[in-house]
Design a protein that fits this description.
Length: 196
């Protein structure tokens, strides 16, 4: 994996947004997607909120995705291999970039057809523990007409990223505003934050 970690961090250093294809291998992406679909079928997903703690609000005209938090206590083999991968990435990141990441949080994310997430930043106003945002996509056979691009607002340009299977996007949580454009079919991912 070191080569992929390197690709990711090189593009992050170069362009503020790290991108690497096949960060999740096809088998893991497929298994995590199957988990997400099963969780959705069991009504386990919850509407994603905006803000933190008591200030959390729910507004589908701002953010329409549904989420479910991953946890090692679920004893799900695929979730655990995902966490193993995150542990090795965090170790690599801390060793090569002295980032001091000490914890993380990840959720499955489902954007049903017709949903989106308007322009926002990932760090909460009342809590600065989120250092890096990571999004990993679970969409085999995603086509341009399916929409759902991630748009990152740089100072002088907008970067458009399609949510292709296995791809990871990595950026500082306090630095770049971004949005998810309307998805024309179900769009799945794992989204998370590295904290210190
Ligand atoms: C988020 C987010 C982007 C994406 O969940 O905060 O911006 O591409 N997600 O899903
Ligand atoms: Ni975001």
């Amino acid at each position: 994996m070191e080569k992929i970690f390197n690709t990711l961090l090189d593009s992050f250093i170069e362009n503020k947004v790290g991108i690497a294809e096949h960060f999740l291998n096809d088998a893991l992406a497929k298994a995590l997607k199957a988990n997400l679909i099963a969780l959705f079928g069991d009504n386990k997903l919850q509407a994603a909120g905006t803000g933190n703690n008591a200030k959390t609000g729910y507004d589908a005209s701002f953010r329409g995705d549904h989420i479910y938090w991953l946890d090692r206590s679920h004893n799900n083999v695929h979730e655990n291999s995902f966490f193993d991968l995150m542990d090795s990435f965090v170790k690599y990141l801390n060793e090569t970039c002295y980032t001091g990441i000490s914890s993380y949080e990840f959720h499955y994310t489902l954007y049903e057809k017709g949903t989106f997430y308007k322009k926002h930043m990932d760090r909460f106003q009342d809590n600065d523990s989120r250092k890096f945002s990571m999004i990993m996509y679970l969409n085999a056979d995603w086509e341009e007409k399916d929409g759902g691009e991630l748009c990152i607002h740089h100072e002088h340009s907008i970067q458009t990223i399609s949510p292709l299977n296995g791809k990871i996007v990595f950026f500082r949580s306090d630095e770049l505003a971004h949005e998810v454009l309307l998805a024309n079919k179900a769009r799945m991912s794992i989204t998370g934050w590295l904290r210190s």
